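Materials and Methods. Structural model of NAD(P)/FAD-dependent oxidoreductase. The 470-residue sequence of NAD(P)/FAD-dependent oxidoreductase from Janibacter alittae was retrieved and submitted for structure prediction as follows.
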Amino acid sequence: MADVIVIGSGPNGLAAAVTLARVGAQVTVLEAENEIGGGTRSLEPFGEGIIVDHCSGFHPMAVSSPALAELDRYGLEWAWPEIDAGHPLDDAPAALLHRSVDRTADGLGRDGDRWRLLFEGPSSSYDALRADLLGPVVHVPKHPLLLGRFGAPTVLPAALLAHLFRTERARALFLGTAAHAMRPLTEVVSSAIGMGILTAGHHDGWPVAVGGSQAVTGALARALVDLGGTIETGVRVTSMDQLPPADAIMLNLSPTAAVNLCAGRLPDATVRAYRRYAYGPAAYKVDFTIEQGVPWRDAELGRAGTVHLGGGPAEILANERAVARGRMPERPFVLLGQQYVADPTRSRGDVHPLYAYAHVPAGYTGDATEAITAQIERFAPGVRERIRDLRVTRPADFTAGNTNYVGGDILTGAKSPTALLFGPRPGRNPYGTGLHGVYLCSAAAPPGPGAHGMAGHHAAQLAIKDLGLG
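The predicted structure was written out as tokens:
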């Protein structure tokens, strides 16, 4: 029996652990903090009954992820909002994203046919595309023609691809989703993350985990224990010398942390690549409690699980560029979550949790609370009067609770063209470290961040092959 140690209990670490345990490995997960889950955790900072997601909140890429297969047996349940996402504008009705391509297109007027052109084919083929989209970009595809059809637009800058659409509403809806990458949308390949989220979402919707994103973590943990694995919390590993002998070590760590942990052991080429690995902008998060919900100017937004507060296309492009250059915009892009519209168990009576984070410069030390509140008020006049309480998570707080979030970067690395195409170790297997038996399984490896766990799953498959367990 192979002995495996997994360092870090975020969704990728737990997915790697479960994947290895399923083929008979004896797996131990070591977590530095006192609670498992990394970014996929939930809390009740406003008292019992009001559930807030710490970081990961919506899961279009996770609901049918192979790494999370059969977790319904362990209590994982998904819930969907009536409207997946909305993007309000100052002088026009909000653009609305539905799971149905046709319903979304019907709401986009003269851009409807163009939305269908871009998303109808890939979303209808997502079952076949999933394995290719949730793995390294550079690989031998299982469905080359389908992947080519999907991939051709993704190489374009999102700012350029958005010009496929003729209206501000359609452009804003696309760019607001592309902005999840927290990169300048004028870069090549900056369409890729938005295209992936929208394609998966049009197939599977944008669900939330019932009871909070912690339910994903809890289900993975129960599956691991059921398979004979163990989890130890409060164990901070800073050196390989702390670890007992093992046949494989899975690092759910940032490349920077991996270099420090493996000091003097990694090949020089890996050290150089990991030290060059760049981190991106930060998140500044404010969780609110809102009495009677948000009084959106466009009432349809009250049924949306996610709302992108970024204004029109020009504003989105300018703000994402400014943040990447280290400048704080007056009106930052804000991703707002109304998870309770899909999962009412998160609310307490008429008081609802509202999740909102702004894109801010890396390591930002200012106070963005008012800027976030003003962005909500901009599209929901009177919301201030409904706020009952709030809780702030600054970039430094994200880093303090999770060392993978360098400078408050909740994506575990800048999703630059090079990082998207090749991962943290260009020209080599992105999950291998070059050190025998040691693998990188964090969100720094493809396909990147999210509760889908696929970076961990792929790293574990490589370990299984090397160990001869398959």
